[in-house]
Design goal:
The structure is a homodimer. The first copy, chain A, is built from 19 helices and 31 strands. The first copy, chain A, is globular.
Chain lengths: 758, 758
């Protein structure tokens, strides 16, 4: 059973916020933080947020000095409405965890049922005991629906119960008035246009201050109780329903609160759409809603089944992480996956390279429709990416924004923002990965090839030949402690891959007589393609003869080494204690950079180079980024160092559930969660999908007794089970396949398991 | 006669502002822009400013992304009061250049008298003609004094004259409400605390919003006329005196308006100080004030006499530039020389490296007290420079702020701000230059050696050894089109000089038994000095064998060359049309960088290397900075290319007076003005003062018939006259000297001119 149960967190500000993140409900379209329905006492501070993926406002982001091209307006994900509020009075005493006696309380995330629950046994100051059970669900079947089921049982008394269910449009994004650094953000982005009742449904229509978008929230309260007195209150921007009824000892009353969220990005008539969706939600019995939720998740867990035997905590963390991925991923081309999913306001709901390098690997192997949609979302902003390239000075090509919601760059500090040109290569890499795993020409024809060509054009405009080699200068690789360098190995290797695949994609489409669209759309010429191929061949990939490693960039090795052992606890993470320029002056890495390149493009160098590089960079990497340890785990596994692979994996897997970075309160770390998955399947499992086919090289950590995972490949679904003596591979669906296991060719056929020992 | 006369500028916004700059009055302490006393009609926009050197408020400068150590508060020079206003009514008709008939108008800057004048012959709409003569002076004798003399002659009528003389505290700095980029600055920094009368003097006391400084302006109107009726009006923040009197045909009335400005930086009892200074001003006859002004300037021109024969315009521009230097330079340790002097609000009154590298060369040779004071001002902010070093991560040493007023860094974009660490080397260089020209151990003992040691410590903390050489990474040299590079040649060469001279200074003081103070103050150890010496010897100075030049930095030569000829007019200057990162990717220089190093540290490389470097960098330099052409002129002269030297010199000399950069309206370019002087004396004159003595190598441009200049050297004053056949050098003051002329040793003695031919 995939459940995460907790005796709930402490009742201090940080723990409250952490709980809101850990127990948030989301379905890729909407996300609701796990705030207490009844709120918190005055003086407590939480992030009571409800979000729609891709719904944003523009916000001013003035630059301290105004240089040409610096970004001065960002997008920010909005808190759209507060429909969480349910306040309970027990015979005139208001329920609060901060008063009376809390006899018991637990919280649970049920990852098979797709709900969170909160169970409380509470005795009021005057001695009346109630059992409160709250169940919440962001529906996977009906994306605009968030459902809360609020049960109250009179345990040891008979008396009057009052429930106030609120629906508030007077919301704003989180800010801390005591912190002058964020006080500037105390801006109300969303203004209520209208509050109304239609039948038993209340509607709030709001409009953004600058982006001109509309959101409608609809709420319907269904109370199962008798002798109910009901009043409704409506103000300019809030609506509230108050229910009062008698409850006898041992009896239970239930309030079902339906929230529907719709937005003008996806619908022309938002208000009408909200009514339609509410009708749809109400047309189905609640139990049926729960059943459909289970059904969806059964399919999900069947696809991506990953089980580890021998480490219960780890298994739990793994499931938790995968569950967050399916909660976070956008399901339509209007959105993507935010760095914090839909769980909080950290990074303002922006989409980064995390999607392509840390999340797509999961979705490509498990949920292809989501994977395809993520590529379509990138394709939908291609014109913005071209404009961004022009802003950055380039005469041609597309430079995808480092961070964005609707396609325009939101990075306010370009040395570790727009300078990370590799994001364009990352997106191209995901297009290729999707193709290799599916051999699907449709997506290539429709959008993929165009992305490959426009990003290839960017590299051509950025680079220059020097002494016969193609150089790419003044960029930043993944490591944000080393900015604006020349010939970042990761970037150049990825650009090489990008340029090669731009040519290959055109070749594949031409072969299938399907190149017409992309040729016409891009106007690409034979000459350009030849130039791509030449640049790819001439790409400069820094290599240091003496150390036998790939230097991170041209000048990395000439810098002073920062002795990691000397870093004091209070200096961590370094970015919060050192001026960026000071960090740039050292051999010190925030995260995997060249080591990441050695994973994703492992054939660009021989194994011994990778081994030496790994050893070298390990000594200078702080892993201050949550995107790092999973990659170190994967490469350690590749190199056969299982002890290290396990250690790095453990750090990665438990990051959010055990709040090891101390900032999960701002939201989950989706990229790290994807990274955990990658560490199992690509790391321990040794899975690779290349032009030449599928490779597996399963290894098992010492502490584990066995583990297994499933994945899709072309038309097939396969399962890999690994134990101490080797691995068993079975084909669950699809046609037979030739695959490589431990370097040997094997034929995978239905109903004929392969057993391979290393 | 040193006069600059003009039939005044057109009456459009840009020309009005240009005129305000060109004809501003300043004396190093205060500056008043040359606005029309009578103001401009509604809708006209000017920068009506009065400034005190070093008087500032703090202003918020939020960063788009908040990284550790980024500066979020700057200082800004304030417009302190408006005492320029004198409005004239001629028989009820208000005088304005925008109405009636302007029969004649001229404006003049008399650089020997130290005054500006405005002469207007105006016929009112009803036909009354007046001659108005305004003379303005910022007194060099009494620095807090600004005097305006306003004469009105009734040319062809007898009638009633009214004069309104205003004194306003309700001032703010310039902003353009139509330009959203500066609208944020529409903040009133200075608030009036009190307006008052004491006898005939009005006082306005104002206090800054954040820096807690006070300024007092005092005004006294003395009218020479008969049958005067006077009224005085006082509001919360303004004071006005209105005079009404009859004037007969051909008669003249004169209003003397005295302004005194005092501030709490320099005085504990500002109000009392203002009264005392006003008394001092009034105690002297006006003619005597003018005489003392002339006397001061006679001394100035005697010292720094530079005369060119054969190019009248150029001579005029040269005099204009030198005059601006003496108007701009602070006279006490509370201030320095702003990039725009006291002539406007461009760069917010900040002090840059301009002082040391472009202005000190002039003052060291001509006005030693000012030179010494400029060093003392830097010394006064040494503790801030140490704090700045800590903020930048350095464990020791002093990093002088790239731009500042009171000592804290004001640079909002560090890649072309704080990253220009060379400013610390520049300040050290000025300390050494002052010493070499004066052999004055006093200044070294009192402050100079300490500056040298603390800046040397900075280089030690910044650099690291690599392959036996001392490297300095992640810095920006003078060229702001190439930022955050490794081993910038200019920076490294200057750091080498800094480290060497830190050791030498201690040696010199020890030899004279005067090292006690600096040793105690800095706690410098023998070991540190040895490390300085070692690092200096091991300093890595990039050299390219193939090209035989010094590359600007480690990676400059591997970048693509930007064909300067291809730059379209509408793309100039590049910084206003390209993202900084795009520029960083090219071999394109905003200004002299390595070429500047080849001038100031010419012995670090042989002449042929310098020649090849010059030729190389000339092809990739846009001179988008006003600090560039003068340096190219100097090095071209050194290389004997007089045609080029002249061309670059011409571009430099006429920049402000002919408004060639189109932005003189924001203020003069003091560094370029100093550069013009340097181009004559260091460029054509070939003057160098080195440890080994004084060198001259005069050359004469083809268009000139002769030129001459004077300079101080140790206890001497010398004059160099150059004509087509050679040069004559005479000792005007001081003891005999051994000097080098055209590489030959000569003895300079009193009353014995040396005549040398090349």
């Amino acid at each position: 059973m995939k459940q995460y149960i907790l005796n709930d967190f402490a009742l201090d500000n940080d723990s409250l916020k952490l709980g809101e993140t850990i127990f948030h409900n989301a379905n890729g379209y909407l996300g609701v933080r796990g705030s207490f329905e009844e709120g918190y006492p005055e003086g407590y501070d939480s992030v009571r947020g409800t979000y729609i993926n891709g719904f944003y406002d523009f916000a001013a982001m003035p630059q301290a000095e105004k240089l040409y091209g610096l970004i001065e307006e960002k997008q920010t994900m909005l808190n759209v409405a507060d429909t969480q509020g349910i306040v309970l009075w027990v015979d005139g005493e208001r329920f609060s965890l901060f008063e009376g006696t809390v006899l018991d309380r637990t919280r649970c995330l049920d990852m098979e049922a797709g709900v969170t629950t909160r169970e409380i046994l509470w005795r009021s100051p005057s001695g009346r005991t109630v059992r409160i059970s709250v169940k919440r669900m962001a529906s996977f079947w009906l994306l605009p629906l968030f459902l809360a089921e609020y049960r109250v049982e009179a345990v040891d008394f008979s008396g009057e119960i009052r429930l106030c269910s609120s629906h508030r449009g007077d919301v704003r994004n989180y800010f801390d008035p005591k912190d002058p650094r964020v006080a500037g953000e105390a801006f109300r982005h969303l203004l209520v246009e209208k509050t109304e009742w239609e039948g038993d449904v209340s509607y709030i229509t709001s409009v953004t201050s600058k982006s001109g978008l509309r959101a409608v929230s609809a709420v319907r309260n269904r109370l199962q109780a008798e002798h109910v007195q009901k009043t409704a209150v409506r103000t300019e921007d809030t609506v509230e329903e108050r229910f009062s009824f008698p409850l006898k000892e041992k009896e239970t009353a239930v309030l079902y609160k339906y929230t529907i969220l719709c937005d003008s990005i996806r619908s022309g008539d938002v208000r009408g759409e909200a009514a339609k969706r509410m009708e749809q939600a109400l047309s189905v019995d609640v139990e049926e809603l729960y059943r459909r939720q289970r059904e969806y998740l059964a399919g999900f867990w069947k696809n991506c089944a990953v089980e580890v035997e021998g480490d219960r905590d780890l298994n739990e963390a793994l499931h938790y992480n995968m569950y967050q991925l399916i909660q976070s991923a956008g399901r339509d081309p209007y959105c993507n996956i935010a760095a914090k999913g839909l769980s909080g306001e950290g990074y303002e709901g922006h989409y980064f390279w995390d999607t392509e390098m840390y999340l797509q690997p999961f979705f490509i192997l498990n949920e292809r429709e989501i994977s395809k949609n993520l590529i379509r979302n990138r394709y939908s902003i291609l014109e913005h990416a071209k404009e961004n390239a022009r802003l950055l000075g380039h005469k041609k090509g597309a430079a995808f924004p480092w961070r964005t919601i609707m396609g325009k760059e939101c990075s306010g500090y370009f040395p570790s923002g727009s300078a990370q040109y590799h994001i364009s290569g990352d997106i191209a890499y995901a297009v290729v990965s999707y193709y290799l795993a599916t051999r699907d020409l449709d997506l290539l024809e429709e959008s993929g090839a165009e992305i490959l060509l426009e990003t290839a054009r960017l590299w051509m405009d950025m680079g220059n030949y020097y002494q016969g080699k193609f150089h790419i200068n003044a960029v930043t690789g993944p490591d944000e402690y080393t900015c604006l360098v020349n010939n970042n190995y990761y970037t150049n290797a990825l650009a090489q891959h990008n340029l090669r695949w731009a040519c290959k994609a055109v070749g594949l489409l031409e072969e299938a007589h399907r190149a017409g669209r992309v040729l016409e759309k891009t106007g690409i010429t034979e000459k350009e393609l030849e130039e791509f191929a030449q640049a790819a061949e001439a790409m400069y990939l820094p290599y240091d003869e003496e150390l036998g490693i790939n230097p991170q960039d041209d000048s990395f090795l000439q810098k002073a080494v920062w002795d990691i052992a000397s870093i004091r606890e209070e200096e961590k993470p370094l970015l919060l204690h050192y001026h960026p320029m000071y960090l740039y002056r050292y051999q010190i890495c925030k995260q995997a950079d060249t080591v990441l390149a050695h994973f994703i493009l492992e054939d660009a160098q021989d194994l011994e180079t990778i081994r030496r590089s790994f050893a070298y960079y390990e000594k200078v990497t702080t892993h201050d980024s949550s995107l790092s340890t999973c990659i170190y785990s994967i490469v350690a596994a590749k190199l056969g160092d299982m002890e290290k692979a396990c250690r790095y994996f453990g750090e990665s897997a438990k990051l959010d559930l055990f709040n090891t970075h101390k900032n999960t309160k701002d939201g989950i770390h989706t990229a790290n969660m994807g990274g955990t998955y990658m560490a199992v399947v690509y790391g321990f499992g040794g899975l690779r999908i290349k032009e030449s086919g599928l490779y597996l090289h399963p290894r098992i950590p010492g502490q584990w007794t066995a583990y297994r995972f499933r994945f899709r490949y072309e038309d097939a679904v396969a399962e890999v089970s690994v134990d101490k003596s080797g691995c068993t591979i079975s084909l669950l669906e699809g046609n037979p396949k030739e695959i490589h296991v431990y370097g040997r060719e094997c034929r995978l056929e239905a109903e004929r398991e392969i057993r391979v020992t290393q």
